[in-house]
Amino acid sequence: MTSPADRALAHVRTLFPAPGPAVLDAPITVNFHPDRLLPDGSTVAQRLAAGGVYRSQFETGISNGGLTAYAGGERDRWEQRMFAGAYAGLVRGRPVYGALNLAGHPDGAAPRFGSCHLVLDVSVSARATFSHGDSVTEPRVVGTADTFGAVWQALLDEVAGTGRALHVAADSPNAWAAALRKPRTAAGRVMDGYVEAQVHGGVTLSEDVTAVVADPSFRGTPTGALLRGLSPRLLWSPGFELPADAFPEDLRGPDTPRIAAAVAAHFGRDVVDAELVGRATHEPGRWAAFGSPPEVLQLLKYVWHVLVLRGAPACP
């Protein structure tokens, strides 16, 4: 009998069988916030250090996206559709979500989901499925490493229509494909339109992770020490920071700059960065003037989004 992971991969391979270009030389990255609290009070970094396994939202109960990983929830529903019911009724063993870093962005392929990221060994792509866009949009174009043609064509069509994809601009699809191979040191700031990767069969740090890339705001902190222990290779991203009085009102609503200013003032800081936002999430009740704890956490998520979109590199 085949495993759920095998059934999911086999199903996706039948949908768009065109091979497309090889993608095994581009790593999958898994962005995450290392200092977010789990229901038991431990942080993500602490849990990773203790268990050595990156787990799905169905097991952790937290997410930097929507909290819908439960029986009958939206994530459960879209996984049923995408993988033909392969994971029906399961909690453990669900796919882990990341994105394919075709452009080699130093902040990871999908920084909206976290200030740090795991770089997966390229061999992991052989047991991943990919979609043109996030699962929440119920994408219709999917593939695997050996049936990537439809996803690749969707990216080329995106370039032809808009002049860019994966936050890489080009005059033509051919020029865009060539531009992907150029090394990058500036953050990609990709918030939408990434190639989502669904990794089947789990992610074990000792076997599947080649590097941890951390936001520089965690240098010299207990979280930074934990991140250093997750992989023999710790790298630092450019990071994002923004003066507390520079948050725009037109990007994520008028309450976002207000809570950013309140957090900075409380901690005696003029500049907001990933570590400061993380500290604020540990005490959502402190910011009750902005709403209930879930509403506050949503606003702090927006603060992070603004940092990605408008923040200056902390380490140019």
Q: What's the order of the H and E elements?
A: HEHEHHEEEEHEEHEEHEHEEHEHH
> Taking strands numbered 1, 2, ... along the chain, how are they ordered across the largest sheet?
6-5-9-3-1-4-11-12
Indicate the structural class: alpha+beta
Please work out how many helical segments DSSP would assign: 11
As a percent range, the share of helical residues equals: 25-40%
Query: What is the overall shape?
Result: globular
Beta content: 15-25%
Give me the count of strands: 14
**Overall pLDDT metric:** 93
Domain module tally = 2
Oligomer: single chain
Using only CA atoms, what is the Rg?
19 Å
Largest sheet: 8 strands, mixed
Distance between the termini: 52 Å
> Low-confidence runs (pLDDT<50, min 5 residues)?
none
In short:
The chain contains 11 helices and 14 strands.
Describe this protein's structure.
The chain has 316 residues and is of the alpha+beta class. The chain has 2 domains: 4-236, no CATH class; 241-310, no CATH class. The chain has 11 helices and 14 strands. The strands form 4 sheets. Strands 6-5-9-3-1-4-11-12 form an 8-stranded mixed beta sheet, with helices on both faces. A two-stranded antiparallel sheet has the order 2-10. It has a two-stranded antiparallel sheet with strand order 7-8. Helix 9 packs across helix 11 (293-310).
